[in-house]
Design a protein that fits this description.
Elements lengths: L6 H5 L25 E8 L2 E2 L8 H11 L2 E7 L3 H11 L3 H9 L5 E4 L3 E11 L12 E11 L2 E7 L6 H8 L2 H4 L3 H34 L11 H20 L3 H9 L7 H67 L14 H22 L4
Parallel strand pairs: 3-7
Antiparallel strand pairs: 1-2, 1-3, 4-5, 5-6, 6-7
């Protein structure tokens, strides 16, 4: 129990790095690999059993059934043919197997006879030098987990969300791994939710940047309407984030509140902490959506005000230009009997009168804020 109290210290270092060189989001399956199995290991009394050569899933199952312990198999984007043998070996439900192979599932927790099937969506923040209307902010992947009495199987989809570093950290704490597959399930859930927290902080920075730009007076160099495109793109990315976070809240609550025979009671307590952090992230994401709606409305209102100001300026100059247009139109009719037509000072008087009237209109409009 003393090491269980340090459980968070084991999984917390798995917080996702948002730097490109952080090494967290590596694809562990080589493109030239002939199998989807990333790693296969047997753990007994919390320690990895070293055999000298890589274990196949079939060999790992034989060791577990002969000497006890549990097997942890990690796969990356397996095909139906690659996964079918493992599914038969562990008696996995066909519906869960289909979901694991096809991917694109919403986060969920499903209970079958002898196993739990859990789906997590991993979220990765995409670094960008400048946020624009075409910037990709978040990238999603999936981790499916099969939890049994003596096995734990992870199926990853997407090029990010590697569990290699997490596996190594768990192996450094034998007392924790001795709790069995449920300890691994908690570590992965905590790892995924920590990733959400890191991404939420980064998205908050992007939203703050957009908000500052929208409300910065006299910002030059940005074409009209560019902010609306950036805001809309952020709303799309936040929507993808919300699809990963919101559906996962109910499964985490079930794991933390409802007794399950496949979940160690000592481990179940720590799912409450994961659920609490997930609820906080959900509140942040919902707040992002509302804040972006407010920023978008403010941006549209600013655009409307700017258009009204443009129309007032155009109207004001049209009113000023109408005076000389009218005078020139009257004196351009070439009638013989017109006032001051043959007077020596008629031209400068009419010209001066026109200028004075235009200046008076300009001053009046300027005083009223139209120019």
């Amino acid at each position: 129990m003393s090491m269980i109290r340090d459980l968070r210290a084991v999984v917390r270092p798995s917080r996702v790095s948002l730097r490109k060189d952080g090494g967290t989001y590596d694809t562990t399956r080589s493109p030239a690999a002939t199998t989807a199995v990333v790693d296969c290991a047997v753990y007994r009394d919390g320690r990895r059993i070293e055999t000298g050569t890589p274990l196949s899933p079939h060999e790992a199952v034989r060791l577990v059934r002969r000497d006890g312990g549990f097997v942890w198999i990690g796969l990356h984007e397996p095909t139906e043919a690659e996964f079918s043998g493992i599914a038969r070996e562990f008696g996995l439900h066909p519906l869960a197997v289909e979901d694991a192979v096809q991917a694109h599932q919403r986060p969920k927790l499903e209970r079958y006879d002898d196993s739990l099937f859990t789906v997590f969506k991993t979220i990765h923040y995409v670094e960008h030098d400048q946020l624009d209307a075409n910037s990709e902010v978040v990238e999603s992947g999936e981790v499916m987990c099969f939890t049994g009495r003596d096995f734990f199987i992870t199926v990853r989809h997407g090029g990010q969300g590697s569990l290699r570093a997490l596996r190594h950290r768990l192996q450094d704490d034998p007392e924790l791994l001795a709790k069995g597959p449920s300890a691994v399930l908690h570590a992965i859930a905590d790892h995924v939710v920590d990733g959400y927290i890191a991404v939420a902080d980064a998205v908050q920075d992007d939203i703050d940047e957009v908000e500052t730009d929208v409300f910065s007076p006299g910002r030059k160099g940005a074409p009209r309407g560019s902010d609306a495109g950036r805001i809309y793109q952020l709303k799309r990315e936040v929507l993808e984030f919300k699809r990963a976070v919101s559906p996962l809240l109910r499964p985490m609550q079930l794991l933390s509140e409802r007794p399950m025979r496949l979940i160690d009671p000592d481990i179940q307590k720590y799912f409450r902490d994961v659920a609490d952090h997930l609820a906080r992230v959900q509140e942040q994401v919902l707040g992002f959506d509302e804040l972006l709606n407010s920023i978008l409305q403010a941006n549209l209102a600013q655009a409307s005000v700017a258009q009204n100001e443009d129309m007032r300026k155009i109207t004001s100059w049209a009113a000023i230009i109408a005076v000389p247009t009218m005078v020139c139109g009257v004196y351009g009719m070439n009638f013989d009997h017109m006032p001051e037509l043959h007077w020596r000072y008629g031209y400068p008087v009419i010209l001066g009168f026109t200028v004075m009237v235009c200046l008076g209109i300009h001053r009046t409009l300027k005083r009223n804020g139209w120019l």
